[in-house]
Structures are given as C-alpha cells and as structure tokens.
User: Fold these one by one.
Assistant:
Number 1:
Amino acid sequence: MRFAILAAAAICLAIPALAADAERPPLPPGTSYVREGSEFAVTQIRPALFALSEPDYYQHNVSYVIVGEDRALVIDAGASTTEDITRAVRRLTDKPFAVIPTHLHYDHIGSIHHFQEVWMIDVPATRELVRKDGFTYVPPDRHIATAAEFAATPFKVSRYIKPGETIDLGDRPVQILFTPGHTRDEIVIYSPLDNILFTGDFIYPAGLFSGNAKDYLASADKVLATINSDTKIYGAHPGPAKDGVRDLPLVTHDELLKARETFQRMAKGAAPDETISNPSPTGSFKMTAAKVYRSSPRIRVFGDIAFADRGQLRYETK
Ligand SMILES: [Zn+2]
C-alpha cells in the first residue's frame, strides 16, 4: 500500500517529494493527516465541522469545512500551491461544496482555482478584480506574495454574497459579515447553530496585521454585536507551538474585546508601544517598519507595516 501511494505521488508532479513523518511536526490529539504524504491535517471539531490545517507550512494556515444537509462550505482555499485542497475536502464529505475566501492574500487562495464553486463577498474591493473575460485575477499588490512564493491563477466567482447575508447550507445557516481592517476584502463567517465564528486573519492568537485601524475598529464592533461571550472563535493562524504542538487557533471573547480596544487606540493615533525600524530584516515576513501595539498576552497588532520584499500593508478608506 505504501509503495502504491509513493508510486502515485511520483507520477503526479503536483505532489512534491514526501517528507518522512518523523520530520513532520507533531499534531494535536485527534488530528491526523488526510492521507500519508498529504500537506493537509484534519481535525474534526464537531460532527459537521472540520479544520484542515497545514502544519508543514511556515504560517501553519487553517481552513475550515462546514457540512450542511445540502452542501458544504469551505472557508479559505489553503496556502498550498502544490496540493489541491479540494481532494482533502472530498475525503470529508460527499456533498457538493463551495469555497469562500476570508480575504485574498496568497496564503488563503492557494487552491481557489481548483474549486468548481467560488463564493465571494460582494463589495467594490472584490468586484474591481473581475476582468473583461469574467475571471477574477488577484494582482500582487492584493495577494502580497513574493514572485517566488505564489503566482495567482485566475478563477471564476459563481456567487456573490451581500455583506451580512445568511446562506442556508441545509439545516445549517451561515452568516457572512464584511469585516475590513486587515484587508479591504476581509470577511468573517458566523454559524449560529454551532455558535462558532470563523475569522480568517481578522483575529487569531498571534500578531495581527492592520491595513486600516478605523475599518478594523468598525468591523470589531460589528462582530461583537453579532456574537456573544460563549461564541467559539476560530482564526486562520495558530500561535506558537507548546511542547512542539500547535493547537487550533482558538481566540477568546476577551481577546477580541482587547483587540477592539487596541484598534480604537490605533484609530485615534495613539503612540505605539514599540516601533520596528529595520533596514535589513530577516525572518518570514521581512518587516522593515511597523508600529506595534500590545493588546493581550498572545496578541499584538502591527500597523503602518512596510515589508522589504512585498511593499506595504496599509490602505486608505474610500
Ligand atoms: Zn493569512
């Protein structure tokens, strides 16, 4: 069986050389790889709810799958550009499924062109990316990858979702909230039945990147008016590993309240707690400049960010 899998991988150029399992990061209890050699690990959160994480990827992205009676919704299209996430999804459900990206940064749209159904928030920031041929193309200043990391493949949007719209997956409604701040196209998804909020990069238990603090503040108010103190909040990037293991990126309601206070400080132009000014940066993101605001023990917010290799992460509110 092992030979058969390796032989299949060898003739499928989309799958790179397999890392030995011993070299891979340990997974939280209850998590397993979709299959041997896959980049995607799966955790079943509830009977109809799965996390698809990428433990080998440097940002450790987590996408989610909600399965309704009629259809499934995949939240984010993964970071991998070498493995098609839809194959991993197909192993979790036989229902038809669509994907909705929480935003259009490169690490959330890796497989988006592989989906037959792509849903998208209906706002000017997404409509402006539709070309004359009807395909959506995310340019480098919007996906912010370096050329070596990612080359955007155009894709077709099959359904635009109005901000605040609720869609029924079949006995499982999900509400799509438009929550700009990290980017101009950011959304979060609320499942009232599960009382779970999926937040993409709006909030997760590590450093947050603000593109516009005023938008971020207004979005935090919108989210807080929708959820309650018992809502489970799942982001797209986990915090640092503990004892070598990275848990799913769960955020507390209190951390969201504290983040809201931080966005408010930033929006008012308060002085940062630290300033990054680094002409020769190293590390994953190569930040040359940023204002850093401490929010809560696990979360800091970076504003006015400039990168050595991918321009700036900030935008004006129109
Ligand atoms: Zn991200």
Note: The chain is about 15% helix and 25% strand.
Number 2:
Amino acid sequence: MKKILIALIILILLIPSNQSEKASLPNIPSREDIIGFLFALEKRAKNLQFVIKSNVGKELLEKTGNMNYVFNDTSLKDAIIAFYDAINVSYNESSIEEFISSLNFSKEVSDAIALIMFSYVDVLNAKSGEEQIDALLITFSSIRKASYVLLNYSLNESKVDPYGKICFGSTKSNVFEKNLTFIIDFGGDDKYIARNNSFILDLKGNDKYENQSAIYGINILYDLYGNDTHFDASYSYGGINSYFDLEGNDKYYGNTAVSYNDGMSFLIDMKGNDIYKGNAYTQAFSKGGISLLFDFMGEDVYNASLFSQASSIEGIAILLDAYGNDVFEAKDYSQAFADGMSGRSISLFLNLQGDDLYMAGNYSQGYAEDLAISVFLDVLGADNYKANKFSQASAILGLAGLIDVDGIGKFAGGFASQGYKMGGISFFMKDVDPRGNENIIQLFDYLNLYFRELFPQFI
Ligand SMILES: [Ca+2]
Ligand SMILES: [Ca+2]
Ligand SMILES: [Ca+2]
Ligand SMILES: [Ca+2]
C-alpha cells in the first residue's frame, strides 16, 4: 500500500518521494485497495470542516510568543505595524491607534485579524520559494482558526486605514479598489476591481472578482461562501497567486490557474458545481512555472481552446478534479500535453471518480515531446474519450501515458494515438490492476526521478 500511496501523494500533492525504486513490487495494492482508498477519501472530505473552533488568543501567543497579547489589546496594532514595514509604508503610530479605536472591534476579533495579518506578513517577508510555501500553508491554517470568530461578527460600515492599504468591508455590497493590499470582508455581494499583490479574505456573499493577476508579487484570496464569479483567477507572472474558494457554484472565466516565467498559480475549489470557461492557454497552463487547478467535489464543466486543461511548455501543469460527473472540452495541445523544448516539463490530468466526458483535438489526452512527461489518469467511472491525432498516450521523444483504471471507457482516437511512440515511451492502459503491473511501476519511477531533479531542495 505504501508505494502506491506515495505515488498518489506525488500525483495529488506534488510532494516528491525519496523511496527508492523497484524495491517493493509485492506491496503494490490491488485495484480494490485503491477504490477503497478513494471512497474513504470522499467520505473524509465530506465530513471535513474548513473552519476550526479555536481560541485565537492562544493561537496568537503560540505564533508570536508574545505574552502581552494574552492580557493587552495590542495585537492588531503590532500586526498593522509589521504589515506596513513589510510593504514599505511610512506611518505614525498615533494614526494607527486612531484607526484601531474607530474600528471598535472586540479583543477576540482583533486577535483573529492579527493572527491572519502576522501570517500574511511572514509570506511577504519570506526569502525563498520554500519559505513562501511554508508561510502560505501557515496562513491557510490561521484563516481556518480565525474564520470561526470572524464569521460570527457583523460589520455595519466599511473602514479603510489612513494609508489606503487596509480595508475591513461591511456586510453590505462593496466595491474594492485596486490599491488596497489587505482586505477582510464580512459579507454582502462584493466586487473586486483589478488588483495585484494583495490579500483578500471574503467571508460571505456572491462576489465578483476581476483581473486577479499577480505580476512579480503575491496574491492570496480566500472566498468562503457564495456563488462567485472570477475573472483571471490565479494568473501569475514571476509571482505567486494562491486562490481558495470553499463553497458555492462558481464561474471561472479567462486565465484560470496560469503561470509564466517562474510564477506559481494555485487554484483550489472545494465544493459546488462549477463552470470553467476560457480561450487558449488556460485551466492549468504553464510556461516556465507551476500551475495547479484542484477542484474537489461537484459536477463541473470545463470549456477552453488550445493549450489548456493541464498543458505545459517547460513547466508543470496539474489539473485534478477529484469527484463528480464532469465534462472537459478543449482543442489541440490539451488535457495532459507537455513539451519539454530544452528544459523540463510535466503535465498531469487526474480524475478520480465520476462518469466523465473528455473532448480534445490533436496532441492531447496524454501527449509528450522533447523529454517531457504527460499523464492522463482516470480511476473510476464510465467515461468517454474523444481526441484526434497524436493523442491518448502518444510520445515523440517524451513519456506519455493514458491510464483508465477500471476500463469502463469508450475511446475514440486518431492517427498515431493510443500507445504511439517515436523515440519515447508511451503507455495506453485500460482496465489496469496496478498490483504487479510493470508499466505502472516504471511510470511512477520516472515521475519520481523527474520530481527529484526538479525539486532537489525537497529531498
Ligand atoms: Ca461586503
Ligand atoms: Ca463569496
Ligand atoms: Ca465551487
Ligand atoms: Ca468534479
């Protein structure tokens, strides 16, 4: 079980393993083990609570080690000062104190906001990509704890700090300008105009987000409830864009989970029946960066054109849709397309469960060239696959795989498809029992090695 779990974790969470290869053939689980694992995961996910009941004062003490925060009401002031220092705003302390007293927050609400703000400051001050990822994960957990307090608070009137950087949005419908850098909104159907390098926590409401790109900076968005509309959700160019939408039937238009030039884009949508609609170079596309689109539950529809739905050129592109009956429609170079050119490139298109429909053009559904790796994996469900030439496991000097584990699928492919290779490696596998399957072992070994070369710092 261990090895396949490690392999699944590699695929799902992008964490490379340092298990050595070819050691544990007898430990590979059967198909039944994997199916059991997926059902258990679904059950766990359904019972998982994002918001954690917690004592924010205690969390704040743990985070900062500052005993003052237990007895005094100074956490928010210190957090704001740390935040201004991180974004180079020159301030005077009396105007911060005035702002805080105008807010009239309880100690608990102040502590909850301070907990989030200190975590965000750590992201801003991080020195390396690794430190940034660590700080982003801590921010995730701070938000889970602080939201418990914030969701029960109601703000009647929006408040902006004297330097135009921080905004606490009211429970009414607001419009947020692009120069704001730290926003917590307590409800209402809000509209966020173009932004770059900012933090948003929107607690409730059906919201509209426009032009959410990060150019050489960091964008963080948490939207907890409501049916939201996102334009250019999680686009990064040399920066980090981290996007999280917890509940609701959402719409994602334009550049969704797209990265260029060492950028990292993460989009996680946990629940709801969502619609993804775009043109070319979208829905987990990367050129020289990392893009991850992770949609956990729901019946989703994905529609795009060329180079989309797990498509990479010298980059890493991962689209994971875990559960639900989904429809994916794209044109050429899509649905697990990877081109290494002179560098490294990985595309993973993963669908765990549901009766799905996949439609794409040429060079799709598992196509790799020039030392790239592309894998299209569908575990369970009665699926339909349609693509044209050089598709469904087709490799030219690369490694391409299409694996439909339960094999209840209909495949329509064109010329040079379904196991075609020219100077590369290609796996077209239907109805696979991973236990003892040499091809699967070989594939995971390649992925393992590849990740190790790409991320030596994690080994
Ligand atoms: Ca609002
Ligand atoms: Ca919302
Ligand atoms: Ca959703
Ligand atoms: Ca789905």
Note: The first strand starts at residue 159 and ends at 160.
